[in-house]
Amino acid sequence: MTVYVCEDSFDGILCGVYDAWMSRKGHEQVCLEIEQTENIRLFCEYVSVKVTPEKVEKTWIAIRKKLSEQVYKKIYQASLSQEPGRADCIYRFLVDAFHYGREILNMLHLPSVFELFRLCRFVMNESHLLKEFTRFSRTEEGLLISRIGPKNDVLPILAVHFADRMPSENWMIYDENRKRAIFHPAGEDWFLVRGCQTGWNESLNLKTDEEEYRSMWKAFCQTISIPQRKNYVCQRNHLPLRYRLYMTEFQ
User: Is 69 helix (H, G, I), strand (E, B) or coil?
Assistant: First the structure.
């Protein structure tokens, strides 16, 4: 078995798919893994995948032309998952996809399709919740800042959503788990900054109007609540505890 070790990015996975496919060793004799995975397989040859623009371009062109734009979108969503096996899951899905063609997304009875949809569902569910639970604070300079700590890499999905909702605002969303941030200058396109250094973290601690709005928001929540109808179990089902660390009303 040959294990192709991919960079932890969508481009890295695409290059891993390209190298594994072009090796001609047989789909059952190769697999993909994300780098820094702790599980080491015995009696396997490990090959590091080099990311190049040529391999990325050839792979996504083949997917879009021979399959569909929807298939490309699905594998991108799956690549944002936190699961270590996402790269090999995408590879197994593409093996079946190029075999069955454009109708692959309707073949949920296939294990590879089922697994890919499971990853996508987890990613999209978390991004949907964070669209509602993300809280912004305005600094004295007028910058809207927010912290999140998602399990999956949902920053690109949130960026598209908030860029559409707040196109005329300067804002940033910082992912504490991955040390990355999305920046959106007013009236311009958003961009992603990887490996944020201390300078970026300092901007998150600028003086804001948080205290004033926090007290107002808490007063509102207490006013509309009905003590006799409190149900903490139901509340946790709709609002998991891990999101409350970053929500104004729970500070």
Answer: helix
Contacts of 73 (CB under 8 A, 6+ apart): none
Using alpha carbons, select from 159, 164, 28, 173 the residue that is nearest to residue 91: 28
The whole-angstrom separation of Cα 54 and Cα 215 is 54
Three-state secondary structure call for residue 140: coil
182: part of which helix (H) or strand (E)? strand 180-184
> b/e string for 182-199 if b means 16 or more Cβ within 10 A?
bbbeeeeebeeeeebeee
Determine phi and psi for 41, rounding to 5 degrees.
-90, 140
The 3-state DSSP composition of the chain as helix, strand, coil percent (nearest 5) reads 55, 15, 35
C-alpha to C-alpha distance for 71 and 98, rounded to whole angstroms: 11
Judge whether 135 and 247 are in contact, CB under 8 Å. yes
- Is residue 17 within 8 A of residue 94, CB to CB? The reply is yes
How far does the chain reach from its first CA to its final CA, in angstroms?
A: 50
pTM of the predicted structure, to 2 decimals: 0.86
Residues 6+ apart with CB under 8 A from 59: 14, 15, 17, 18
Q: Tens of pLDDT along the chain (251 residues)?
A: 888 999 989 999 999 999 999 998 888 999 999 987 666 777 888 889 999 999 999 999 999 999 999 999 999 999 999 998 999 999 999 999 999 998 999 999 999 999 999 999 999 999 999 999 998 888 878 888 899 999 999 999 999 999 999 999 999 999 999 889 999 999 999 998 887 654 555 655 555 666 777 788 778 878 888 888 888 888 888 888 888 888 877 77
